[in-house]
Design brief:
By secondary structure, the protein is mainly α. Helix content is about 60%, strand content about 5%. The chain has 9 helices and 3 strands, in the order αααααβββαααα. Helix 7 (about 125-130) packs across helix 9.
Length: about 170
């Protein structure tokens, strides 16, 4: 049987949709290749997941050490003890990104706790205790807060950093 020379001139897309038995077979082969590749990929991913699960304890330990290293690195930028000052406290407020959860003069988180006039509302001891251990302090003095739930995480700051932040917050009257 002689094939038409026009068949070879057709663009590849039209040849792919050609209704002949040969093109249907090609489509089936292509589909089976795709399915085989998909099954193989899923199998490979599941095997790698099992392998990763065996190393889970090592990964958890590595994550803890990486987290501790990151905290140490973050803290080490400011770990040189200096005399507590409001200026140093303002720098620490920015460096530790306290503005992600707090606002001062409308700058920072709009939904977080506003620190405007905090010095006229809270004593130095109150602020210091709350920065040191927010949960413990919140539980002891729940009536002193406008909210029912404390969202502030423990900060793990050096003593001079806490004092500097307290000095800075005392300037906000």
């Amino acid at each position: 049987m002689c094939q038409s020379p026009l068949r070879y001139i057709q663009p590849p897309l039209l040849r792919w949709f050609h209704k002949s038995r040969k093109s249907k077979r090609k489509r089936c082969i292509t589909l089976s290749k795709r399915l085989t590749a998909a099954v193989f990929t899923l199998l490979l991913l599941s095997v790698s997941g099992v392998h990763a699960g065996q190393k889970q304890t090592d990964g958890a330990e590595a994550q803890k050490s990486k987290s501790a290293t990151a905290k140490t690195t973050k803290r080490s930028k400011h770990s040189t003890p200096v005399a507590p000052s409001a200026k140093q406290g303002k720098l620490l407020y920015k460096a530790y990104q306290c503005f992600d959860c707090h606002s001062i003069e409308g700058k920072g988180c709009k939904n977080g706790y506003s620190l405007d006039k905090i010095a006229s509302k809270r004593s130095k001891d109150f602020i210091r205790d709350h920065i040191k251990d927010p949960d413990k302090h919140f539980d002891k003095q729940q009536g002193s807060f406008d909210v029912d739930l404390n969202l502030m995480p423990p900060q793990n700051l050096e003593k001079w950093e806490i004092e500097s932040l307290v000095e800075y917050l005392q300037t906000l009257k």
